Automatic annotation (TrEMBL):
SUPFAM superfamilies: TPR-like (SSF48452). The keyword Membrane applies. Belongs to the SusD family. Its main location: membrane. It is found in: Cell outer membrane. It comes from the Bacteria. This is RagB/SusD family nutrient uptake outer membrane protein. GO terms for cellular component: cell outer membrane. Residues 87-223 form the SusD-like N-terminal domain. InterPro entries: SusD-like_N (IPR033985), SusD_RagB_dom (IPR012944), TPR-like_helical_dom_sf (IPR011990). Gene3D superfamilies: 1.25.40.390.
Length: 505
């Protein structure tokens, strides 16, 4: 971790000060890395520097190479979402022409600590953590008492980003997620000055996540963000709901219900028209609100507003998934739906039309769900279609799941039917479900609704659900894997093992 920390410190410092700092400051100490103390002094002179630092946290989520490699699968959160969808097996490779994601789909990266794919999420999330800790330290540390509203808002966002990163690390690198609480899973860093840390227990990590997000919600209660790429109280509530659901005590699940109810009071569900493309006889798109490509969609809670200035092209989530974007999906490495999952979608479900069975792309391609609005094969060269991180529908499904896990079957059915009323012609069958059958239906509907959005893997872990691959999968067709199997969790990467001798203490 030590080497990684210094690298990131330099990167943050140089990116911020190259564009913002006074010339005399750079001249005074031209050959040294800029320390956190120096950053704090500079922020006192120019508070706008903090805005750039927090903006850098968010751009890390979509920039390429933020997982420490030059791989074309290394592009922030959405790159990791593809990893998780491949591990959960609802997203498959149609072919392996270029090899990206093959080690994940083959469950090789999850068994090889030297693999780049095991390294990318680790490096990415710890990069977020160190950058968040830098902001927190500059503001005076975790317990700082701030009176300036803008500074408080920066603190709230930084703590939420730290919690977000630790939550995903618990999913990718801890076989049982929370487990019993006693398992040692990750090094915990809450400032930039700590030396290499040993592994902390899952209870310690989750307690820190809950603490950070709870404080963030309080701090950001009156924060009016300028765009959905920023974290506000609603995003923090969504992240906290996921955290409680993953830990999963009865008290936690009751909090999931409260938190998701609060978020759902502010965001509508994704409409039927926005869920799937509707085309006329010539192939012209009739409902431009579809495509999951616009952060302005009312149901989106958190997402990135990508523009030409974002500088994304073929190395992007859109390039890897959308055949209407010039990149891998369109030239031989399509990302397709598991055939068994597709078969489970009812005939009267509009989401059945999100996929087209294509001989060209060797599988069920998501041309009805995710697409560049122009819908020209390979038409989008510079990516301006937006990234989705969180939407209202997943909050409703979490709400229904928590109620079912608490044996509140009737309220769980009511919650699920709110979503299905926008997707299925006849959803009366839900009234006959209870107990485990109801839990399984909520789990299935979560997989269908959130296909390709990086959320199924989280559902696998928190529900302790096994994964069974469909017969069309290129690798291990028909085989079943337990949620806590070696195949579904990355090992701590070699670089961390080498650089952090305290891991074994």
């Amino acid at each position: 971790m030590k080497n990684l920390k210094y690298i990131i410190t330099g990167a943050i410092a140089l990116s911020v000060f190259a564009s913002s700092c006074k010339k005399e400051f750079l001249d005074e100490k031209p050959h040294e890395l800029i320390s956190t103390d120096q950053l704090a002094d500079a922020v006192k002179q120019d508070p706008t520097l903090l805005k750039g630092m927090v903006s850098g946290l968010y751009s890390t989520m979509y920039n390429t190479g933020t997982g420490g490699t030059t791989g074309h699968d290394d592009f922030g959160q959405k790159g990791n979402d593809i990893y998780s969808d491949m591990l959960a097996s609802d997203m498959m490779l149609g072919a392996q022409t270029y090899g990206w994601y093959a080690t994940v789909a083959r469950y090789q990266a999850t068994k090889d600590f030297t693999s780049n794919q095991a390294y990318v999420p680790w490096r990415y999330y710890y990069r977020i953590i160190f950058a968040a800790n830098t902001v927190i330290d500059v503001l005076g540390g975790n317990d700082a008492v701030l009176t300036d509203v803008n500074l408080k808002n920066y603190m709230g966002q930084a703590k939420a980003m730290r919690a977000y990163a630790y939550f995903y690390l618990t999913q990718f690198y801890a076989e049982k997620g929370y487990g019993t609480g006693a398992e040692k899973i990750l090094p915990l860093y809450i400032d930039t000055k700590a030396p290499n840390q040993p592994l902390s227990t899952s209870a310690q990590i989750f307690d820190q996540i809950v603490k950070d997000l709870t404080e963030s919600i309080q701090i950001l209660a009156t924060y009016n963000r300028t765009n959905k790429g920023e974290i506000n109280a609603d995003v923090a509530k969504g992240l906290l709901a996921y955290t409680y659901a993953a830990r999963g005590t009865d008290a936690d699940l009751a909090k999931v219900i409260t938190l998701t109810d609060e978020v759902l009071a502010k965001f509508p569900l994704t409409t039927k028209n926005a869920v799937v493309a509707q085309l006329d006889g010539t192939g012209k798109l009739l409902n431009p609100e579809s495509g999951f490509n616009n952060v302005a969609t009312p149901s989106w809670i958190w997402g990135a507003d990508l523009t030409i200035a974002s500088n994304l092209d073929l190395v992007s989530w859109w390039g890897q998934v959308d055949v209407y974007t010039y990149s891998y999906a369109s030239v031989g490495d399509a990302k397709v739906a598991d055939n068994a999952l597709y078969a489970s979608i009812r005939a009267d479900d509009v989401r059945k039309n999100q996929f087209v069975n294509s001989a060209t792309y060797k599988g069920l391609i998501p041309t009805g769900k995710f697409f560049d609005p122009a819908r020209v094969i390979q038409g989008q060269r510079q990516v301006t279609t937006d990234y989705i991180y969180m939407r209202a529908d997943e909050m409703l499904l979490l709400n229904a799941e928590a109620k079912a896990r608490l044996s509140q079957d009737a309220p769980a059915r009511d919650a699920l039917k709110k979503l299905l009323a926008l997707r299925i012609t006849d959803f009366s069958y839900v009234d006959g479900l209870s107990g485990n059958a109801l839990k399984e239906e909520i789990y299935l509907q979560s997989r269908i609704e959130l296909w390709g959005e990086g959320k199924t893997y989280l559902a696998v872990k928190r529900n302790k659900h096994s994964v069974t691959r469909g017969s069309a999968n290129l690798f291990f067709p028909g085989e079943t894997f337990a949620y806590d199997s070696d195949e579904l969790t990355f090992p701590i990467p070699q670089a961390e093992v080498i650089n952090n001798p305290n891991l074994k203490k």
